[in-house]
Amino acid sequence: MAQRNRFWRCGSGRHVVGQVQRSIHRVPQLAVYRHAFDPEADDPAEVDIVHVLIGRSPVKCDLCGSVRLWDISVDGMVYLFQHLNEAQVLEFSQKLQAISVEMEE
Ligand SMILES: [Zn+2]
Predict the structure, then answer these.
(1) How far is it, in rounded angstroms, from Cα 103 to Cα 100?
(2) What angle do CA 47, 75, 50 make, to 5 degrees?
(3) In angstroms, what is the span from residue 47 Cα to ligand 1's centroid?
(4) Are 20 and 71 in contact (CB under 8 A)?
(5) What pLDDT does 74 receive?
(6) Do residues 60 and 49 make contact, with C-beta atoms less than 8 angstroms apart?
(7) Cα(69) to centroid of ligand 1, in Å?
(8) HSE-up of residue 41 (Cα within 13 Å, Cβ side)
(9) How far is the CA of 76 from the centre of ligand 1 (A)?
(10) Which of the residues 35, 38, 61, 101 could staple to 10 if both were Cys, CB 3.0 to 4.6 A apart?
(11) What is the CA radius of gyration of the chain?
(12) Confidence at residue 5, expressed as pLDDT on a 0 to 100 scale
């Protein structure tokens, strides 16, 4: 399973902490492994995925302690936006407009 997807490495670049995959909605997401591994030394037959990220989140390597930020894609933001209810869309739009006004000032 892991080989079919693109490995995602920790902040040091030495260890694999997860794999990049696409959801059924074609949204890029990071499947985070319970334990990182060194691809030069280990070739785990199976990996244990503890959670799947769409949004922005720091990911810590349990081998070296380095932290790397997984960032949300535009497709991910659109996907999340499409799942808001009406009140959330209104609040989101207001905040976006406020940010836009701040940027113009
Ligand atoms: Zn590491």
Answers:
(1) 5
(2) 20
(3) 16
(4) no
(5) 92
(6) no
(7) 13
(8) 6
(9) 26
(10) 61
(11) 17
(12) 62
